[in-house]
Amino acid sequence: MAIQSISTLMGQLKKSYDKSKDKAGWRVLQGMNGAYYDTFISGNNNLWQIKSEEVAGSEFVAVGAKVSRSDDDLVKIMKAGSPVPFGSITPVKKQQSIIMAGMQTYSSDSSDLLRREYLSGKQAELEQKLKSQVNKMMDDPAFRKKYSEHKDRVRRAYL
To answer: Is the pLDDT of residue 151 over 70?
Structure first.
């Protein structure tokens, strides 16, 4: 359960999705956990968790990890909640981004149940590591500067 940058994790998710024979079976569940969003993505019999914090309107810092093998019980939890559209654009390289879009299930109760009851005993440790990484990025002046520069570049690209 190595914690990865969001760009690395999204690259792995895309490769797994592209190889998947059951693309319709992929699921996304999101819910709030205090000030953080927990997003769980299941597909190809795997489960990934992304922890993110909003830094500006619809802009987040995030880290994630592959946390478990997926099974029928996990998929059942992933389906519980309200269906809402989701979208994500993750920069991977200077001129390339991964775009995810579709319908997700939104339920803080389901994501909390998944996080507490169904994932391994290492979940509490992972939870702390994910929060720590997000906080570390948010507190790092160099990251804040790079993030601000990135936002300016992206904003100029659409003008």
So the answer is: no
Cβ-based neighbours of 43, under 8 Å, separated by 6 or more: 13, 16, 17, 20, 22, 23, 25, 26, 27, 70
Distance separating alpha carbons of residues 112 and 115, to the nearest angstrom? 5
Enclosing domain of residue 66 = 4-157
- pTM, rounded to two decimals: 0.74
Give yes or no for residue 85 having a pLDDT over 80: yes
Instruction: Give the sheet arrangement for strand 96-106, strand by strand.
Output: 4-5, 59-69, 46-56, 36-43, 27-33, 96-106, 82-93
- pLDDT higher than 70, residue 157: no
Strand partners, 68: 47
Listed in sequence order, the residues at least 6 apart from 35 whose beta carbon sits closer than 8 Å to its beta carbon are 53
- Tens-digit pLDDT profile for residues 37-68: 888 898 888 989 888 877 766 677 788 888 87
Structure tokens at 138: 């948010």
For residues 90-100, give the mean pLDDT: 77
Q: H/E element holding 100?
A: strand 96-106
Residue type, 137: M
Q: How many CB atoms lie within 10 A of CB 127?
A: 18
Count of domains observed in the chain: 1
Amino acid at 15: K
